[in-house]
Design goal:
Distance between the termini: 52 Å
CATH class: Alpha Beta
Number of strands: 7
Radius of gyration: 18 Å
Strand content: 5-15%
Shape: globular
Order of helices and strands: EHEHEHEHEHEHHHE
Helix content: 40-55%
Strand order of the largest sheet: 3-2-1-4-5-6-7
Number of domains: 1
Largest sheet: 7 strands, parallel
C-alpha cells in the first residue's frame, strides 16, 4: 500500500470518528473498530471515496473477539503503522462506598484490559518491523484524582502507566509511544457516564466552551506526522476555560 495504515478503536463516535475523518483526508488507510456494526458500515461508506477502509466489529473487552478480528485482517493490512487506542468509557460518578461493581468492571475491562488486548495483537508486528507509533488516549483523570472519580481515575492512571511502560519497553525497536490526556471534550462521554441522562450530561459543559473531538483529532494528526526523530511523548490538553480536573471557569447562564 502507498499510504500508512492507522488502526483506530472506538471509531464510531467522538474522538475516534473525528480522527478517522481527518486521517482519511491526510493520506492514511484506515482500520476502524467498534461495537456498533451499523455505524461502522456507514462510516466506511462515507470515507471509502477518500481512502481505503476496513472495519472490524468487536468489543475490546472480549479478548477472543479481539484476537479473532485482528487475525482476520488481510495480509496487506497487517502492517499497521499507527495504533490509536481510543476506546474507553466512564460509568457512574459515585463515592467509593456507593460504587457499582458492574461499573467498575466495565471501566477496567474497557479502559485498561481492552487497550492491552488490542496492543498485544498489534505491537509484536511493530517490534518485528522496528517501526510504528502507538497513541493511547488517556484523560486528565489519569493525572489528577477528583471526588467520586475513584475507579475511573484508577483506570486512566493505569493507561498512563502502561503508556510510560510501553515507551520504555519499545524504545530499543524505534517505536514511538504517545499519551494524550484531554480535559473536557464534548462527546458521548458524559451521556454514557450518567447512563443516558441527557440533562445531567448537558450540565457538565454548561457555561463552558469545551474541546471538540476535532481538536484532539488535530493533535493526533500533528503527532503522527512529525519527522522520524521526533516523538510527542505526553500531552495534557484543556479547553481554555479549564485549568485542572476540577478548576473550570464557567460563564453565567
Amino acid at each position: 500500500m502507498d499510504k500508512r495504515i492507522a488502526f483506530i478503536t472506538g471509531a464510531t463516535s467522538g474522538i475516534g470518528l473525528a480522527t478517522a475523518h481527518l486521517l482519511a483526508a491526510n493520506n492514511f488507510n484506515l482500520i476502524l473498530c467498534g461495537r456498533r456494526a451499523d455505524r461502522l458500515e456507514s462510516i466506511k461508506k462515507e470515507l471509502s471515496s477518500t481512502t481505503k477502509v476496513i472495519t472490524l466489529n468487536f468489543d475490546v473487552r472480549n479478548k477472543q473477539e479481539v484476537i479473532s478480528a485482528i487475525a482476520s485482517l488481510p495480509v496487506e493490512w497487517k502492517k499497521i503503522d499507527v495504533l490509536i487506542n481510543n476506546a474507553g468509557n466512564a460509568h457512574g460518578l459515585s463515592p467509593i462506598q456507593q460504587g457499582d461493581a458492574a461499573d467498575w468492571d466495565a471501566m477496567m475491562d474497557i479502559n485498561v484490559k481492552g487497550l492491552l488486548y488490542v496492543s498485544k495483537e498489534i505491537v509484536p508486528g511493530m517490534v518485528e518491523r522496528k517501526s510504528g507509533h502507538i497513541i493511547n488516549i488517556g484523560s486528565i483523570a489519569g493525572k489528577e484524582v477528583y471526588a467520586n472519580g475513584n475507579v475511573y481515575c484508577a483506570s486512566k492512571y493505569a493507561v498512563d502507566a502502561i503508556t510510560q511502560g510501553m515507551r520504555i519497553d519499545l524504545n530499543p525497536y524505534g517505536i514511538k509511544v504517545t499519551g494524550i490526556h484531554p480535559g473536557m471534550v464534548e462527546t458521548e462521554f458524559s451521556l454514557v457516564r450518567f447512563k443516558g441522562d441527557a440533562e445531567r450530561a448537558k450540565n457538565v459543559y454548561k457555561g463552558v466552551n469545551p474541546l471538540k473531538p476535532e481538536d484532539i483529532a488535530d493533535i493526533i494528526l500533528f503527532t503522527v506526522t512529525r519527522p522520524a526523530h521526533v516523538v510527542l511523548a505526553d500531552m495534557i490538553v484543556f479547553p481554555t476555560a479549564q485549568a485542572s480536573a476540577t478548576t473550570v471557569k464557567r460563564d453565567p447562564a
